[in-house]
Specification:
Helix content is about 30%, strand content about 30%. The chain has a single domain, classed as Peptide deformylase (Peptide Deformylase, Alpha-Beta Complex), CATH 3.90.45.10. It is globular. Its cofactor is Fe(2+). One of its GO terms (biological process) is translation.
Length: about 190
């Protein structure tokens, strides 16, 4: 089932999410709904706060980024994380960020029609659980690390615009206010703040 995406301004997006255990109700269905919602809105990642759940859960499919790259893009740059991952992350916590910060143009399903260059670390090491609650510690790099860090921000109550300069945020204030008020049209369901 495709769930509505929570829009900028909703308080759940600013809440630090809580860890869960395997007794969380209907977790398998929730994860399946998150995949369906993410693909239905053309996303490459989706965090539980974006569907109005304050839990440390997100899904990432960076593999589709590489699948949709043309040959020219592949030749231009070395992608250490190719072919990407399709993974569920539960109770994720960052162990370490490493490498140089690099810029990449990011957007967010909760903040539609706004894109900006954001600097993030080249690598992130995460401790997390998969959907069977097996614990992992794994290092991710490149575009995959970026998508993970973006979704990780969501479970920590942060948004990609928090990485921008105060001036850039001030310049986009009207657009952000429009999103909060529901004055935006997208081709997926959204849940606006009341």
């Amino acid at each position: 089932m495709i769930l509505p995406i929570v829009a900028y301004g909703h308080p759940v997006l600013r809440k630090v999410a809580r860890d869960i255990d395997n007794s969380y109700p209907d977790l398998d269905k929730l994860i399946a709904d998150m995949w369906e919602t993410m693909y239905g809105s053309n996303g490459v990642g989706l965090a539980a706060p974006q569907i109005n759940r304050d839990i440390r859960l997100f899904v990432v499919d960076s593999a589709q980024i590489f699948e949709h790259m043309d040959e020219e893009e592949r030749k231009e740059e070395d992608y250490p994380d190719a072919p990407g991952v399709k993974q569920v992350f539960i109770n994720a916590h960052i162990v370490e960020e490493a490498g140089d910060d690099w810029a990449y143009n990011e957007g967010c399903l909760s903040i539609p029609k706004i894109r900006e260059d954001v600097y993030r670390a080249e690598e992130v090491t995460l401790r997390y659980m998969d959907e069977q609650f097996n614990e992992h510690e794994q290092t991710f790099s490149g575009i995959t690390a970026r998508v993970i860090l973006h979704e990780y921000d969501h479970i920590d109550g942060k948004l990609f615009i928090d990485h921008l300069t105060p001036l850039k945020r001030k310049l986009m204030k009207r657009k952000l206010d429009d999103i909060t008020k529901g004055n935006i049209r997208v081709d997926y369901k959204m849940l606006f703040p009341k």
